[in-house]
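sanity check this record:
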Amino acid sequence: MEMERPNLDTEMEFPQDFRCPISMELMKEPVIIATGVTYERKNIEKWFFSYKKKTCPATMQDIQNFGRDEMVSLLKTLGSSPFKVNSLKKLKEIIETGDEMKLDFILLGGLDVLFQLIVQILVDCSDFMAFRACEEALGVLQHLHISEQDDAKVIELLSKPECINSMAIILQRGSKEARVYTISILNNLANSNFNWNVIVNDQGIGMFKSMLELASDEISTKASSSALHVLIKILDSSKKSRSKAIEAGAMCTLIELLPDSNKSKCEKILHIIKLLCECADGRVAFIDHRLAIGAVAKKMFNVSETASKICVKIFSLICSFHPTEKVLEEMMSYGAVKKLVVLLHMSGPSSTKSKVLDMFKRHGNSWSRYPCFPGELKEYLGLDRHLRPENQI
């Protein structure tokens, strides 16, 4: 007992003020908050940022300006210190506490600070610290939850060519987390008047490969969905973008993703395949893939009405431009023709039904040779009398 007592005395000799009111342990990195109470930094940051509290733990007073004061300090640090990553991580935590912090960040000029960090990699993308700062800056931006209605300033800055090119670089060479941040930002911009041609013209094939890799991500479904949504917007913007996507291997990747996709993902993939099939190169890539016709045929009636309509559009494009014997035979053997017959029985006129009827008028003579082809459809199309050569393609 006598031997243990000196240790107890040593421990007790420190004043209570030296101990963190949260953990009651000796403070190694003390900080004073707005109420004048001192805490161990990691403990008070956990209180504010992890537990989302807005009071002083010791006095229970509201801390109205804590986040703002901390934000001002961090923004100053970003402008002068070479060690920016930790400051950016703390900024992200503050912004996550609520919309008022997001507004304060914008009012304090935080967007301009982030913009400078993001475009710095264009000066020297081999600078590791600048690259990491760019990644973290995109992480902060992603947590601002950009929307066209509320964030015109954000969209204005992100739409600048230098910022777009920086994001494209991160999309191709950044960490997995940074790439997810970036695709999320681009997804939020997808419904704005964003000039996608800038990113296509400057980055092209490499960028499409990165997006297709994210679209194939089986772990992060959010990143995968965002990548597909962004691809739709880009491919909708110009036919030039579709050619680059095809060159990047988009058709092959999408067809192989299709069988195991859920409803939402399946509709997006089919939409992109349809857009690519509107180009000659896309149609060639489609018919060259041995699983393409079977994969699309299987999705008719098995996903949604929207998906089935897109499948019809794809087959209509293929049948119009590439009605080879191999294509028509595969449509029959994979059950596409059988499902198209069902669509003919839909009540009332529709553009989908018109496309189906047109396919049968053009190619019914080839399909009617199969014993499973409905006899009443032969009669309806006048196939018993045989189509004249000039009516065939």
In short: The domain at 62-190 is CATH 1.25.10.10 (Leucine-rich Repeat Variant).
